[in-house]
Write a structure and sequence with these properties.
The chain is mainly alpha-helical. It folds into 2 domains: about 40 residues, YefM-like domain (YefM-like fold, 3-Layer(aba) Sandwich), CATH 3.40.1620; about 90 residues, no CATH class. It is about 65% helix and about 10% strand. It is built from 7 helices and 3 strands. The chain has a 3-stranded mixed sheet. Helix 3 packs antiparallel against helix 5 and helix 5 runs antiparallel to helix 6. The longest helix has 24 residues. The termini are far apart. The mean pLDDT is about 85. It comes from Tomitella fengzijianii. This is Prevent-host-death family protein.
Length: about 160
């Protein structure tokens, strides 16, 4: 989908015209480019609500499939490497844990209406896969030196 772009100054100086431009895109979105910060997306509340509902339904369906049906889990585990190609580097038991955690986190992130925990979980598993992909790092991480340095103290407030 092509998204129209406008500079932030156009929104400031010509707000009504910018909103009219949004309406001419059939309620899609406008990308507001900023020089001094993250770009913004201008959309209608109706569109944002529809997007959120579709995302929520997809997350709940996938989480339910992942957690209820072991056969579906096996099928989805195979598909996971299509969606996350780096997952091929995860050992089988880690791949299973990734799928389990993905289901839990999908459900929880949807309940919070916050995708950040899901993004963090995926990033953590990608880092784990990256460690497994490097034989030297994997060997170093899997070596038990027997040195236990005790409990790590809580950070200072």
């Amino acid at each position: 989908m092509q998204v129209d772009e406008v500079p932030f100054s156009e929104l400031q100086l010509h707000g009504k015209a910018t909103v009219a431009r949004l309406q001419s895109t059939r309620g899609q979105s406008l990308l507001i480019r900023r020089r001094d910060g993250d770009n913004l997306v201008l959309t209608t509340a109706e569109r944002a609500g529809r997007d959120r509902e579709v995302s929520s339904v997809a997350m709940r369906v996938l989480a339910t499939l992942l957690s209820r049906d072991r056969n579906a889990q096996d099928s989805i585990s195979g598909a996971i490497t299509d969606v996350f190609p780096w997952a091929v580097f995860l050992p089988p038991e880690d791949l299973r844990r990734f799928v389990d955690e993905l289901a839990e986190t999908l459900r929880a992130a949807d309940a919070l209406d916050n995708p950040n925990p899901l993004a963090q979980s995926i990033a953590a598993w990608r880092n784990t896969a990256e460690a497994h992909a490097d034989p030297a790092v994997a060997a170093q991480l899997s070596t038990d030196t027997g040195d236990d340095h005790g409990t790590v103290p809580a950070p200072a407030a």
